[in-house]
């Protein structure tokens, strides 16, 4: 079983990856949050190079958000030069502005156009292409045509987040569409969606024993030891979570100075579920504005709030 870190824009960048791997051990692979591609003839911007971080092994897979085949192919070339061995295409971003421009989940609107685009990038990309997709824009009925298109393309792998765009990250994933993908796809398939506990994982494997690759997203934000636990290891101790927190904060302060607090608050919006009283944790950090206030709040959390019996993300 392969376990990977799901891409989460604004959260699972290089600082998170490094801190998480050093405290809880690296997952088998890690998908980077989407980046905008470079245009042909142009190098990566400083901002993009920062988002990619230092290439830390062949198990890190960058993701592109684009509908432009020339941009995709050129950028795949730049990524190959940096040492990456695979490039992932985002067919899932649900943001209104992204979809309106026909990117992310917006590419799912026109199945024929999607096939032309995919066949073109797969034929010309210097790196193998994998795809991370949703089921459609508004209705799971759209998925039949989309899956047929995907199955005709020579993909390295297909990651399915079994929701449509309008569902965002809410509601129950449409597991039967994942099952249909496992049956029909001529390439490896991975699952992404709502694996928040060992029980969720076991249930997925009971229902779909052909599962070989699972991405962990919000579940690992709430429970940083989730990957370790799925491989039979122990839950996180308070000391481990503290150490992880400190490395994250230090990394973000180095990267963005005062804005580190925004990143940390976003992390706490998930990490609070590792504690027995998530509301109390959230109340303590939510309104903090300055670093010294933040540090006091963190002391109060780690010295005054028990860990939950089981750290489980609750949407
Ligand atoms: C804040 C946030 C940012 C995300 N950013 C990305 C992204 O950059 N690329 C992508 O393919 N999916 C992105 N996703 C989707 C996740 O990778 C994942 O598929 C989804 O959250 C379902 O998995 P989970 O229930 O394990 O979190 C994002 C999700 C969240 C909550």
Structure characterization notes:
- Helices cover 45% and strands 12% of the residues.
- The chain has 2 domains: 2-230, Aldolase class I (TIM Barrel, Alpha-Beta Barrel), CATH 3.20.20; 238-304.
- The protein is built from 14 helices and 8 strands.
- Strands 1-2-3-4-5-6-7-8 form an 8-stranded parallel beta barrel.
- It is globular and about 55 Å long.
- The model has no long low-confidence stretch (mean pLDDT 97).
- It has 315 residues and is of the alpha/beta class.
- Flavin mononucleotide binds at residues 6-9, 11, 33-34, 63, 90, 92, 132, 161, 169, 192-195, 216-219.
- Flavin mononucleotide is lined by residues 6-9, 11, 33-34, 63, 90, 92, 132, 161, 169, 192-195, 216-219.
In short:
Helices cover 45% and strands 12% of the residues.
For the biggest sheet, the summary is: 8 strands, parallel, barrel
CATH superfamily of the largest domain: Aldolase class I
Counted by DSSP, the helix tally is 14
CATH architecture of the largest domain: Alpha-Beta Barrel
For the termini, the CA-CA separation is: 26 Å
Beta-strand proportion: 5-15%
**Rg, Å, rounded:** 20 Å
Q: Percentage of helical residues?
A: 40-55%
Shape: globular
Bound chemical compounds: flavin mononucleotide
> CATH topology of the largest domain, which one?
TIM Barrel
In total, the number of domains comes to: 2
Q: How do the SSEs run, as a string of H and E?
A: EHEHEHEHHEHEHEHEHHHHHH
In the sheet with the most strands, the strands line up as 1-2-3-4-5-6-7-8
Beta-strand segment tally: 8
The pLDDT mean sits at: 97
Give the structural class: alpha/beta
Highest-level CATH class of the largest domain? Alpha Beta
* Low-confidence region ranges: none
